[in-house]
Design brief:
The protein is of the alpha/beta class. The chain is 43% helix and 18% strand. It has eleven helices and ten strands. Helix 3 links the parallel strand 4 and strand 5 (106-110). The longest helix has 27 residues, at 231-257.
Length: 334
């Protein structure tokens, strides 16, 4: 089965083509990161407009790189949510137009399902497994007992971990996106600034608002005392505390469920310190970590997830697909 994936949930315009839920034939990503960097974050109106400008060329390039024609496509899979509604609708309408014009079935795919299935591209998922989803908008622990069967164990009660990275980077003057910048600075520092303990130790839920506020308050206190902050050390301190919470909660989930595989997914899965801690903490179980190229938003992951979505629940949603700015993973059939 040849699956075309379409992803426009935020600020990447992407179209990819895969074969049989495994082999990537093309993956074209048109990023808007530099355009939004001057604003310190993604501007929804600009993102939508840029998707409109680039979507046709990305479709054409994906087919060209795969050396296929539109008639070779067996299924179209498009991100339906969650995400920026204007951005989502550009991809959804483009995917619908392609599917309608070429008489192809089309399914809507949950964005987080895509991130999870990025691990399947170069690895092999074995069940039961626990996946830690970490990105700018999501921090969740997902249990899977089989393909396309998702059970949410816990989630953030306030800020997502990626959002906390972005906000801390902003107050430190590091710019956007914050995750890679803090990661790079932390490698040059040591975690010597005190940080709060991991909250909610008896639950799978996360909380990053307190950690973010603690960093901001520490910076203000140092400024009032006329002292300067050591940016690499502050980054190392914040990052270590942020990652520690992820590891503690993930170990709880693995022990509670008896899962035999652990995975990470999402943009923050590219964090080098998180990858190191995962390798150490889960040395006694199978671990899957997505390649760096598939951590941030891309259509490759959506095409793989779309393959399993269609294989496990074969239904042609056709022109009834809509976009959802908020969409729980348990509602992936909505």
């Amino acid at each position: 089965m040849i699956v075309m994936g379409v992803e426009t949930s935020c600020d990447e315009t992407s179209v990819a083509i895969s074969k049989n839920g495994k082999t990537m034939l093309s993956n074209v990503v048109l990023s808007q990161m530099e355009l939004h960097a001057s604003f310190g974050g993604v501007v929804p109106e600009i993102a939508s407009r840029e998707h409109v400008k680039g979507i046709t060329a990305v479709f054409e390039e994906a087919l060209k790189q795969a050396k296929l024609t539109a008639q070779d496509i067996d299924l179209v899979a498009v991100t339906k949510g969650p995400g920026l509604i204007g951005s989502l609708l550009v991809g959804i309408n483009a995917a619908k137009a392609f599917a309608y014009a070429h008489d192809k079935p089309i399914v809507g795919v949950h964005h987080i399902a895509g991130h999870i299935y990025a691990n399947q591209i170069e690895g092999e998922m074995r069940f039961p497994l626990v996946c830690l989803v970490v990105s700018g908008g999501h921090t969740e622990l997902i249990l899977m007992r089989d393909h396309y069967r998702f059970e949410k164990l816990g989630e953030t009660l306030d800020d997502a971990v990626g959002e906390a990275f972005d906000k801390v980077a902003r107050v430190l003057g590091l710019g956007y996106p914050g995750g890679p910048k803090i990661d790079a600075q932390a490698m040059k520092g040591s975690p010597r600034y005190p940080m709060p303990d991991v909250p909610l130790k008896d639950r799978f839920d996360f909380s990053y608002s307190g950690l973010k506020s603690h960093v901001i308050n520490t910076l203000n206190t140092l400024k009032m005392k006329g002292q300067t902050v050591d940016v690499p050390d502050m980054c190392a301190s914040f990052q270590e505390a942020a990652v520690e919470q992820l590891i503690v909660k993930s170990k709880m989930a693995m022990e509670s469920t008896g899962a035999t595989m652990f995975m990470i997914a999402g943009g923050v899965a590219a964090n080098k310190r998180l990858r190191e801690r995962v390798a150490d903490a889960f040395a006694d179980v199978d671990v899957l970590v997505p390649p760096f190229a598939y951590c941030t938003d891309n259509a490759a992951m959506m095409s793989i997830a779309g393959y399993y979505r269609y294989r496990e629940q074969p239904s042609d949603q056709g022109l009834s697909i809509n976009g959802f700015p908020r969409l729980d993973l348990s509602q992936h059939e909505k």
